[in-house]
Task: structure prediction
Amino acid sequence: MIKINHQVVEPEDLIQGISNNEEKSIVKQMAANHASYEYQTISQLKFELLFRTNTMKAAQELNKSGAKFTTFSYAFCNKKYWDRLRNGGFLIKPEVRPSVAILDILKNGKLYAFECSTAIAIVLYIATLYSIGSERFDILFGRLYLMDWQFDEDLPIQQKYGDDYLPGDVLHFNNPDFDPKQPWWRAENVIYFGDDQYYGHGIGIRNASTIINFLNGKRKQDPKNSAYLMRMITRPQYQSI
Result:
């Protein structure tokens, strides 16, 4: 259900003021889920809907960018905008605008390679840029750092266990019997699009069974457990951005 200022609101009343079909679909799914989504104002809900659609847009664009999948040890970036640190992370160069640097990953994807958790961070930062604009983005993320699950305090991230998946959520496929010679396939972090479609860096936009079959092909000898979609959801704290 959806609550605005502690009052349950019917989805039909909300979607009347929404022109974007993706956002309408998300509202309907929120209303149908057993979970409760609470906002102080309708503006807060609309910002989350905008951010979610921008997350999916950013994931689609990163998928088409030509950026490669690799491990932290072999990660690389465009040296014009980023310093590649010893741990495989990317730190923005001084005097570079964060909005320009993060969009360069989409523009010059072939100059970048990173693993899937960093890809998720990149998607969420691009979604933030699309949602708040370049001026505010440049102020908030002046020392932008891309590495694994390390997020700036101005982009707070939360995790919860559950299955009330919504388009724009970050979800996780676990591969418990992964091949120890390929530990980077112990899991795949994905952006959920709805309708059984997920973006995972290094895998592309696929359905759940395709991702599971791919991960099952990266298991140790004589595996006993199949890869599976976890009941864990990672989301930005939209109301704190």
Q: What stands out?
A: The chain has a mean pLDDT of 96. The longest strand covers residues 187-194. The helical segments are 11-15, 21-32, 42-64, 98-107, 116-132, 134-140, 208-216.
